[in-house]
Amino acid sequence: MIALKVDEVSFFGDGRWVLEGVGFELEEGDYLGLMGANGCGKSTLLKLIAGLLLPHKGAIEVFGNDPRSCGAALGYVPQETSFNSSFPIMAIDVVKMGFLGQKVGKQAAHDEAVKALETVGAEHLARRLIGALSGGERQRVFIARALIGGVKLLLLDEPTASIDAAGQRAISALLLKLKQKLTIVCVSHDRLLLGGADRILQIDQLADQLAPKDENG
Predict the structure, then answer these.
(1) pLDDT of 189
(2) Helices marked H in 17-164 — which ranges?
């Protein structure tokens, strides 16, 4: 089944065409890495797929539907997740925020939040304050939040930015685990992080085709 179809998509912003004629398809279960120079449109493309922006030309389909109508089937972890580190909120409550706009019972929400934390190997962080966690631990919590509600397509924008080497390795291993169940699109400058990707799209070099993953890393 086609999980994601990007059909000749172009986007205009800040007085220029940020993306022009980008097109590709992903099968369900694929893991795609997006690479390219700063400002080439990687994050913009991810926001278009998430339905946060609309293309000026072309179209995007997620499981055959407009991204804006995909609801819980689409999970998105932005590059910079703003939060007040001094606000006394526990990690499990941050994960439960993934239910925003959904009608879910209190116990069901708790159980699924615990399951999401277990999936990302962070169940031991459930009762810790989000502001007391390391960068890598927080990122796991944010990924868990994005998994809430039956996600099928997971979008991540630079998930290892500002994380130490150990945290980067942990996130890389986590994505390899998640690719067994989900379709993943990950923006990163780190080719090591994308080592488990099935394919890599170099946005600033290949606008209309997927490049095979470099077997030499």
Answers:
(1) 84
(2) 42-50, 91-96, 106-119, 135-146
